[in-house]
Amino acid sequence: MQIIPVASGKGGVGKSLFSANLAVALGEAGKKVVLADLDLGASNLHLVIGHQAPKSGIGTYMTGANSFKDIIAETEYPNVFFIPGDSEIPGLSVLKASQKNDLIRKLRSCEADYLIVDLGAGTHLTILDMFLMSPQGVIVSAPTVTATLNGYLFLKNVVFRLMYNSFKKNSKAYSFMEKIRLDSASMQRLYIPKLIDTIERIDKTSCDAFREQLEQFKPRLVLNMIDDPKDTEKALKIRRSCKEYLGLDLELLGAMYRDTMQDKALASRLPVIVYKPQSVLAQAIYRIADKILNSQTHNFSANVDSFELASSEAEDDFSAKLSFVEDLIGSGTLTMGELAETIKQQQYELTQLKKENTLLKSKLLKASQQGFKI
Known about the structure:
Blueprint lengths: L1 E6 L7 H14 L4 E6 L6 H4 L9 H5 L10 E2 L5 E4 L13 H12 L5 E6 L5 H7 L6 E4 L3 H22 L5 H10 L2 H6 L2 H11 L1 H13 L3 E7 L6 H14 L4 E7 L3 H7 L4 H4 L4 H15 L9 H28 L4 H34 L5
Parallel strand pairs: 1-5, 1-6, 2-4, 2-5, 6-7, 7-8
Antiparallel strand pairs: 3-4
Helix pairs in contact: 1-14, 5-6, 6-10, 6-11, 9-10
C-alpha cells in the first residue's frame, strides 16, 4: 500500500480539494483507495466528496464507541472508501502519544492500494508524525508569499522531527538537539546541512542514522491556485530553499489553476473531476494521479526535470483556459458583461494579494535586519 499524507503550511490552499479529487481519480483508475480525514478539530472532507454528515469516525473510534473497521465507510465513487474525522468530539485535535501511535498502526493496516491522509494545517507533532508515515508525502501550497513561506517552514519542522526520531534519547546527538531546542532564536537560524556537520563531529553513529532517513525522504509539492504559468517559478524558489537550507530534495508533482468551477462543484457536493471532468482543474488532477500511478514502477528523482514538466503543463493549461473563455463568448454562453465582471473580480483579488505581499515584504525585511534567517 502506498501512503500519501497531504499537508500544508497554512489553511485555505486547497489541500482537501486535492486529497478528495486525487482519491476519486485513483479509484477511477481501478485502484482501491482509502481517504482519511485527519484534519482533526476541523474535519470537513466529507463535504468535498458529498458524503453525508458522519455519525461515526476517528472521534468515535478514539472514544471506544466504534471499532476501526466500522468507521471505514463506502462512498458512491468506484473503489473509494472514506474515514471521517469527527470534528465535534472535544479534544480530538490533540491526541495523546498512545492514541496517535495506535491510529498510525490502524491506518497502516488498511487493505488498499492507496491510503490518502488529509492532514490539518500547522506543525503540531501529531501532524508531523502523520506526515512521516510515508517518505513521499505531498505538500499543497499556493503562489502567495504566506503560503510558500509556510510550506517551507512546515518542511523544516518535518526535517527536525525526522532528526529527533532518528536519534536515541540517551545519545549525544539527542542531548545536543535538546540544548538547541531551548533557544528558539538559534533554532530558526539553523541550516540543516551545517547542523548535520556539527552533529557528525560529536556523534557520528546518530548522524549516519539521520542521513539514511533523510536520503529516503522525498516529499512532493503541488502548487495550487496559480493564475499564470509564471507562478510556477514560486515552486522553484521553495525547491532552492529546501535544497540549500534543509539538504532536502523536493519534487513538483504539478500545478493547478485557480478555478471558480471548484466552488460550483462544492456547492453541488461533488468532486470537481466528477462535476466537470474536462475542466482545466480536473485535467491537472488527472495528470498528477497518473504520475503517482507511474511512481509505483518508476522511482521519481527530485530534479529540475519535474519542475520543467510542471511549468510546461501550466503553459498548456493557460492556453486551454483562454480557448475555453473564447468559446464561451463565441457561443453566447458568456456575455461580455459577465466577462467584464469576472475580470473586475480578478483585479480586486490581485490588488488584495499585492497589498498582502507588500505587508509581508516589510515584515520579512524587518526580520532579516534582526538576524532572522530561514
